[in-house]
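A further point concerns the way the authors explain their paired sequence and structure data. For illustration, here is how one protein appears when written out as sequence plus structure tokens:
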Amino acid sequence: MFQEGYDAGKDGFIDLMELKLMMEKLGAPQTHLGLKNMIKEVDEDLDSKLSFREFLLIFRKAAAGELQEDSGLHALARLSEIDVSTEGVKGAKNFFEAKVRQAINEASRFEEEIKAEQEEKKKQAEELKQRKAAFKELQSTFTQ
């Protein structure tokens, strides 16, 4: 379910943009460089994205006091409202999947807003074209 499921890329990972949305949603937005550093700190396979295992590593490092207080990962562990030690791996997996779903929903909503804006602009351009055509037609009746 984790592999098939809920990440925007359908690859079972949280990439930079999904992490960006997650951190914004948690109220701790990060710079592009900050996000890259967050991933780099737990990216065991050096693929520049977070697997479920690497996501769990954030909480292990937080519990062990291995994260800097001002780091993005520390903020993620603190703000994400999941305690892996009490919730267990299954609870963390559910949380991870929910966060990925949430990021997808945000991205989809953004895409829908852009499409709606584009449709509105097309409609306005078509109306303008029709008004110009009507004006030219009216103008031609006066010039004859």
Notes: The longest helix spans residues 84-143. The chain has five helices and no strands.
